[in-house]
Amino acid sequence: MSPDSGINELHGLTPEEQERQRQEWQQELTMVEQEIQTLRQVLASKVKMSQELKRKLGISVWKEFQDDMSQGIRNVKESNVYQKTESVIKTTAEKTTSILGGFGSSVSTKLGQLKNSESFRSLEEKVGSAYENVKTKVVTSRSSSTQSFDEALREAEANRKANNGSVATPATTPTIPEDRPLS
C-alpha cells in the first residue's frame, strides 16, 4: 500500500468505522465532482456571454491578440534584463563605430600622404603630359584627317626625346616598402 492510499488514516479503526469513513469520503467526492461539473457549466456560460459582449463591442480575437502582444512587449522592455542588454548593445555599437571611424581616417591620411609624395607627383606629371600630347595630336588629326593615332604617338615620343634628351620609358608604379611609413 502506498502512503497516499488513505490506508494510514483508517489504521486503528474498527472494520465498521473504516467502512463508514470510506462511504463518507465517497459521498464527499461525489459532491465535489458535481460542484466541479456545475462550475464548468457556469464558466462555459460566462465565456459564451463574454464572447457575445465582445462581438457587440467590436472587440475581435485579433484585437485582443494585438493588445496582449503590445502589453507583453511593454513588459519585456521594462524588464531589467532588457535594459541591461540594450545598454551593452549601445556601448558596443559606439565602440565599434569609433574604431571603424579611426581606421577610415588613418586610411585617408595615408592616401593623402601618398598623393603628396614626390614619386606620385612625378608619375602624375608623366602620365598627364603624355595624355595631353596624344590628345592634342588626335584632335588635330581629326580636323585634318591626315595623321593617324600611331603617327601622333610617334611624333609625341619624338618631341619628348628632343625636349628631355632622353629615351621615353614607360611609366611604372613606384615601389613603397611595407615596413616603412609613407612620409
Task: Report on the architecture of this protein.
This protein is mostly helical and about 180 residues long. Among the domains are: about 70 residues, no CATH class; about 35 residues. About 80% of the residues lie in helices and about 0% in strands. It is built from 6 helices and no strands. Helix 5 crosses helix 6. The longest helix has about 45 residues. The model has no long low-confidence stretch (mean pLDDT about 80). Belongs to the TPD52 family. This is Tumor protein D52. Pfam families: TPD52 (PF04201). Keywords: Coiled coil.
- Low-pLDDT runs: none
Q: pLDDT average, as an integer? A: 79
| Percent of residues in beta strands | under 5%
What is the terminal-to-terminal distance? 94 Å
> What is the alpha-carbon Rg in Å?
47 Å
N-to-C SSE series?
HHHHHH
Major beta-sheet overview: none
Class from helix and strand fractions: mainly alpha
Amount of helix: over 70%
Annotation, overall tally of beta strands: 0
The number of helices is 6
C-alpha geometry:
rod-shaped
Could you state the oligomeric state of the chains shown?
single chain
